[in-house]
Amino acid sequence: MSLKISIIYGSTRDGRLGIRFAKYLTKEFINRDIEAVLIDPLNMNLETLTKRYNDYDNNSAPKELENIHQELDSSDAFVIVSAEYNHFMPPALVNLLNHFYIEYQRKPSAVATYSVSPFGGVRVSSPLRSFLAQLGMPPISAMIHAPFVNKNFNDDGERISDDKDERHKEFIKFAEEIEWYAKALKTARNE
Ligand SMILES: Cc1cc2nc3c(=O)[nH]c(=O)nc-3n(C[C@H](O)[C@H](O)[C@H](O)COP(=O)(O)O)c2cc1C
User: Fold this and answer.
1) Which pLDDT tens digit goes with each residue over 82-132?
2) Residue 74 to residue 103: CA distance in whole angstroms
3) In this structure, which long-range contacts are made by residues 12-16, counting pairs with CB atoms below 8 Å and at least 24 apart in sequence?
4) How far is ligand 1, taken at its centre, from the CA of residue 124, in Å?
5) What are the structural domain ranges in the chain?
6) Which of 33, 39, 109, 165 lies in the 20 to 30 Å Cα band around 99?
7) Does ligand 1 come within 6 angstroms of the Cβ of 113?
8) Pairing of strands 139-146, 77-82
9) Distance, CA of 3 to CA of 137 (rounded, Å)
10) Ligand 1 atom, smallest distance to 15 CA
Protein backbone atom coordinates (compact mmCIF):
# COMPACT_ATOMS: atom_id res chain seq x y z
CA MET A 1 0.00 0.00 0.00
CA SER A 2 1.45 3.39 -0.93
CA LEU A 3 1.61 5.91 1.90
CA LYS A 4 2.02 9.67 2.07
CA ILE A 5 3.33 11.29 5.26
CA SER A 6 3.49 15.03 5.87
CA ILE A 7 6.47 16.05 8.00
CA ILE A 8 5.26 19.25 9.66
CA TYR A 9 7.96 21.59 10.99
CA GLY A 10 7.09 24.68 12.94
CA SER A 11 9.94 27.11 13.50
CA THR A 12 10.28 30.40 11.62
CA ARG A 13 12.99 31.66 13.95
CA ASP A 14 16.05 33.48 12.52
CA GLY A 15 18.89 30.97 12.46
CA ARG A 16 16.57 28.07 13.11
CA LEU A 17 18.18 24.66 13.59
CA GLY A 18 15.31 22.19 13.69
CA ILE A 19 15.05 22.34 9.90
CA ARG A 20 18.07 19.99 9.92
CA PHE A 21 16.13 17.33 11.83
CA ALA A 22 13.01 17.90 9.72
CA LYS A 23 15.02 17.38 6.51
CA TYR A 24 16.66 14.28 8.00
CA LEU A 25 13.28 12.71 8.81
CA THR A 26 11.89 13.58 5.38
CA LYS A 27 14.83 11.95 3.61
CA GLU A 28 14.70 8.86 5.81
CA PHE A 29 11.02 8.30 5.01
CA ILE A 30 11.69 8.82 1.30
CA ASN A 31 14.42 6.14 1.56
CA ARG A 32 11.66 3.81 2.77
CA ASP A 33 9.55 4.53 -0.35
CA ILE A 34 7.14 6.72 1.54
CA GLU A 35 5.90 9.85 -0.21
CA ALA A 36 7.20 12.22 2.46
CA VAL A 37 6.50 15.93 2.12
CA LEU A 38 8.09 18.60 4.29
CA ILE A 39 5.63 21.30 5.35
CA ASP A 40 7.60 24.39 6.39
CA PRO A 41 5.82 27.58 7.49
CA LEU A 42 8.83 29.84 6.86
CA ASN A 43 7.98 31.06 3.37
CA MET A 44 4.26 30.57 3.51
CA ASN A 45 3.26 34.06 4.61
CA LEU A 46 0.71 32.46 6.88
CA GLU A 47 -0.85 35.18 8.99
CA THR A 48 -1.83 34.68 12.60
CA LEU A 49 -5.12 32.84 12.38
CA THR A 50 -8.08 34.86 11.19
CA LYS A 51 -9.92 32.05 9.37
CA ARG A 52 -9.43 28.31 9.18
CA TYR A 53 -9.11 26.92 5.64
CA ASN A 54 -12.58 25.49 5.93
CA ASP A 55 -14.13 28.86 6.79
CA TYR A 56 -13.34 30.28 3.34
CA ASP A 57 -16.02 30.04 0.67
CA ASN A 58 -15.27 27.58 -2.13
CA ASN A 59 -12.01 28.35 -3.96
CA SER A 60 -11.46 31.65 -2.15
CA ALA A 61 -8.73 30.55 0.29
CA PRO A 62 -5.30 32.13 -0.24
CA LYS A 63 -3.09 30.06 -2.55
CA GLU A 64 -0.67 29.11 0.24
CA LEU A 65 -3.47 27.80 2.40
CA GLU A 66 -4.93 25.91 -0.57
CA ASN A 67 -1.56 24.26 -1.23
CA ILE A 68 -1.12 23.14 2.36
CA HIS A 69 -4.71 21.89 2.40
CA GLN A 70 -3.97 19.69 -0.63
CA GLU A 71 -0.86 18.23 0.99
CA LEU A 72 -2.50 17.52 4.33
CA ASP A 73 -5.71 16.20 2.81
CA SER A 74 -3.83 13.68 0.68
CA SER A 75 -1.62 12.53 3.60
CA ASP A 76 -2.12 9.30 5.50
CA ALA A 77 -0.16 10.34 8.61
CA PHE A 78 1.63 13.30 10.13
CA VAL A 79 5.02 13.58 11.82
CA ILE A 80 5.17 16.73 13.90
CA VAL A 81 8.68 18.11 14.32
CA SER A 82 8.75 20.40 17.34
CA ALA A 83 11.25 22.29 19.44
CA GLU A 84 10.36 23.16 23.00
CA TYR A 85 9.98 26.88 23.53
CA ASN A 86 9.74 27.15 27.31
CA HIS A 87 8.48 23.56 27.34
CA PHE A 88 5.75 24.44 24.85
CA MET A 89 5.27 24.36 21.08
CA PRO A 90 6.72 27.10 18.82
CA PRO A 91 3.95 29.59 17.94
CA ALA A 92 4.36 29.09 14.17
CA LEU A 93 3.65 25.38 14.62
CA VAL A 94 0.48 25.98 16.62
CA ASN A 95 -0.66 28.62 14.12
CA LEU A 96 -0.05 26.37 11.12
CA LEU A 97 -1.82 23.37 12.63
CA ASN A 98 -4.81 25.44 13.77
CA HIS A 99 -5.57 26.54 10.20
CA PHE A 100 -6.80 23.01 9.40
CA TYR A 101 -8.97 20.37 11.00
CA ILE A 102 -10.92 18.11 8.64
CA GLU A 103 -7.72 17.19 6.82
CA TYR A 104 -6.39 15.41 9.93
CA GLN A 105 -9.37 13.29 10.89
CA ARG A 106 -8.82 9.57 11.55
CA LYS A 107 -5.17 9.76 10.56
CA PRO A 108 -2.34 9.02 13.03
CA SER A 109 0.38 11.40 14.11
CA ALA A 110 3.81 10.89 15.64
CA VAL A 111 5.86 13.32 17.70
CA ALA A 112 9.48 14.14 16.81
CA THR A 113 11.16 16.63 19.14
CA TYR A 114 14.61 18.20 19.24
CA SER A 115 16.66 20.77 21.11
CA VAL A 116 20.16 22.08 21.53
CA SER A 117 20.17 20.57 25.02
CA PRO A 118 20.67 16.93 26.10
CA PHE A 119 16.92 16.51 26.69
CA GLY A 120 16.02 16.54 23.00
CA GLY A 121 12.88 18.60 23.54
CA VAL A 122 11.13 15.71 25.26
CA ARG A 123 9.24 18.05 27.61
CA VAL A 124 7.09 19.44 24.79
CA SER A 125 5.74 15.96 24.09
CA SER A 126 2.94 16.11 26.66
CA PRO A 127 1.30 19.40 25.60
CA LEU A 128 1.90 18.54 21.94
CA ARG A 129 0.24 15.11 22.26
CA SER A 130 -2.87 16.66 23.88
CA PHE A 131 -3.06 19.20 21.08
CA LEU A 132 -2.73 16.55 18.35
CA ALA A 133 -5.43 14.40 19.93
CA GLN A 134 -7.81 17.37 19.92
CA LEU A 135 -6.98 18.15 16.30
CA GLY A 136 -8.20 14.65 15.38
CA MET A 137 -4.84 13.04 14.55
CA PRO A 138 -4.28 10.67 17.48
CA PRO A 139 -0.59 10.55 18.50
CA ILE A 140 0.95 7.07 18.62
CA SER A 141 3.11 6.08 21.58
CA ALA A 142 6.34 5.85 19.56
CA MET A 143 8.29 9.10 19.55
CA ILE A 144 11.74 10.21 18.46
CA HIS A 145 13.86 12.82 20.24
CA ALA A 146 16.99 14.53 18.94
CA PRO A 147 19.32 16.19 21.48
CA PHE A 148 22.09 18.59 20.39
CA VAL A 149 20.45 19.19 17.02
CA ASN A 150 23.09 21.86 16.34
CA LYS A 151 25.93 19.31 16.56
CA ASN A 152 24.34 16.04 15.46
CA PHE A 153 22.94 17.15 12.07
CA ASN A 154 24.31 19.28 9.24
CA ASP A 155 22.45 21.83 7.11
CA ASP A 156 21.64 19.19 4.49
CA GLY A 157 19.76 17.13 7.05
CA GLU A 158 22.39 14.43 7.45
CA ARG A 159 23.05 12.89 10.84
CA ILE A 160 26.73 13.41 11.60
CA SER A 161 26.91 12.06 15.15
CA ASP A 162 29.26 9.20 16.12
CA ASP A 163 26.32 7.05 17.15
CA LYS A 164 24.46 7.42 13.84
CA ASP A 165 24.08 3.64 13.30
CA GLU A 166 22.39 3.20 16.68
CA ARG A 167 20.20 6.24 16.08
CA HIS A 168 19.27 4.89 12.65
CA LYS A 169 17.89 1.74 14.32
CA GLU A 170 15.83 4.02 16.55
CA PHE A 171 14.45 5.79 13.48
CA ILE A 172 13.51 2.47 11.84
CA LYS A 173 11.44 1.44 14.89
CA PHE A 174 9.73 4.85 14.91
CA ALA A 175 9.03 4.68 11.15
CA GLU A 176 7.69 1.12 11.27
CA GLU A 177 5.27 2.11 14.00
CA ILE A 178 3.78 5.20 12.32
CA GLU A 179 3.60 3.36 9.00
CA TRP A 180 1.69 0.49 10.66
CA TYR A 181 -0.93 2.89 12.01
CA ALA A 182 -1.05 4.82 8.74
CA LYS A 183 -1.81 1.61 6.82
CA ALA A 184 -4.33 0.36 9.37
CA LEU A 185 -6.29 3.61 9.43
CA LYS A 186 -6.09 4.06 5.67
CA THR A 187 -7.59 0.59 5.25
CA ALA A 188 -10.34 1.44 7.73
CA ARG A 189 -11.07 4.81 6.07
CA ASN A 190 -11.42 3.08 2.71
CA GLU A 191 -13.90 0.46 3.97
C1 LIG B 1 11.75 31.17 22.88
C2 LIG B 1 12.68 30.00 23.12
C3 LIG B 1 12.45 29.15 24.17
C4 LIG B 1 13.28 28.03 24.37
N5 LIG B 1 12.99 27.16 25.36
C6 LIG B 1 13.69 26.00 25.45
C7 LIG B 1 13.28 25.00 26.37
O8 LIG B 1 12.29 25.11 27.06
N9 LIG B 1 14.01 23.85 26.42
C10 LIG B 1 15.11 23.64 25.61
O11 LIG B 1 15.72 22.57 25.66
N12 LIG B 1 15.52 24.59 24.72
C13 LIG B 1 14.83 25.74 24.62
N14 LIG B 1 15.20 26.70 23.71
C15 LIG B 1 16.40 26.44 22.88
C16 LIG B 1 16.00 25.60 21.66
O17 LIG B 1 16.18 24.22 21.92
C18 LIG B 1 16.86 25.96 20.45
O19 LIG B 1 16.88 27.36 20.24
C20 LIG B 1 16.34 25.29 19.17
O21 LIG B 1 17.29 25.47 18.16
C22 LIG B 1 14.97 25.86 18.76
O23 LIG B 1 14.50 25.30 17.58
P24 LIG B 1 14.58 26.10 16.19
O25 LIG B 1 16.05 26.45 15.99
O26 LIG B 1 14.11 25.11 15.15
O27 LIG B 1 13.72 27.31 16.30
C28 LIG B 1 14.40 27.81 23.50
C29 LIG B 1 14.60 28.68 22.44
C30 LIG B 1 13.77 29.76 22.23
C31 LIG B 1 14.02 30.67 21.05
Assistant:
1) 999 999 999 999 999 999 999 999 999 999 999 999 999 999 999 999 999
2) 8
3) 12/41, 12/42, 12/90, 12/92, 13/90, 16/42
4) 11
5) 4-190
6) 33
7) no
8) unpaired
9) 16
10) 25
